[in-house]
Amino acid sequence: MSPQGAPKGAPPDRPPELSPPKPSVAPQDARPELPPAAPPDSPVVASPDRPPAGSPGVPCVAPSDAPPTSSARAAAALLRSWYRPAPDALACSLSPLAWLYGALLAARRLAYRRGWRLAHAAPVPVVVVGNLVAGGAGKTPTVIALVQALRAAGRHPGVVSRGFGRHGEATLAVAVDSAASAVGDEPLLIRRRTGAPVWVARRRIDAARALCAAHPDVDVLVADDGLQHLALARQAEIIVFDERGAGNGRLLPAGPLREPLPAAVPPQACVLYNAPAPSTALPGALARRRLAGALPLAAWRAGAPFDQDALHALHAMRERRVLAAAGLAAPERFFTMLETEGLAIERLPLADHHRFDPPPWPAGTPEVVVTEKDAVKLDASRCGATRVWVAGLDFELPAGFVQAILQRLDHHDRP
Questions:
Q1: What's the rounded mean pLDDT across residues 91-120?
Q2: Taking CA atoms, which of 44, 132, 136, 174 is between 20 and 30 Å from 51?
Q3: How many CA atoms lie within 13 A of 324 on its CB side?
């Protein structure tokens, strides 16, 4: 828990960001030839208030004849350095910047502990979902699964988010028909998949207050991607890792860590691995994930469920080659899951939060399969004759993990 109080001139609410060189990004209207599978070194795109340039697993699409830029080569080298087992020469050369970043982080946390900065309490208990590394680790599926688990336990959850990638910073309620450009693709997906109230705001406490005022029945809030947002007080935290773990263990920019890897799991936190096995020394639970099926874009937008028919539709794609497009932080995970189901795919990796306006695949592509996160941004009227399938994800939290979160909330509820 963070202490109270905040004088002027204190460190900012977000950790400082040290961004490595940003690679060039292909225009949104580029229609490249189908690319080969993206190597782990694919160039990446920087995003404000998100992982800096060089975040792992964020390849961008560029015309096949475009030579790699110097910044793209630098980003690829940085990725290789981050995810080597031990710091290499590049990581060591960036260590002075990492030390500076660490000192600023420590000063910021000290400001909250001493009460020089204020951690605002929401009207109801808060569970924060986030990760320690730059790049995606599975926070959005975790939020969706957690909301469903809380509801099954008799709770009435709501979700707050900053709404990364949206236009503007107003405090807004997310509706199922909201534009992703107005509220962010991840909050929109969470709203569509869970039906829970979702609000976005630049300051998460503003979203929390607005949501609770509009929905007085809500008795717990899930904060999407708010682990480093110390201005929001919380009763429980979920730290998500994927199979990459903590990389070389160094802070940005020498490594992928947004904050130091703790020696032990903090008392109010639980660790969740979105991976087949733990990827750090921290004890934690393993999430279970699989593809739930595929729906035509129109049916998915109409709210059709991922039932047995959807699963059969996914398996029917084994008989033909399809294009798989993914605007995720780690698109290779999606491609691998499709191949595990027996599909023969052409990969089209895109930058995280790619707008899909216009559709990025070549004109005349017969069939495309996309993630739900990307489907919320697709305009069916612009897809032409291409048949677009939306692949759903089943993401299950272990019962013991959910019980641990509930215990932390129950402890807060006791007088």
A1: 96
A2: 174
A3: 26
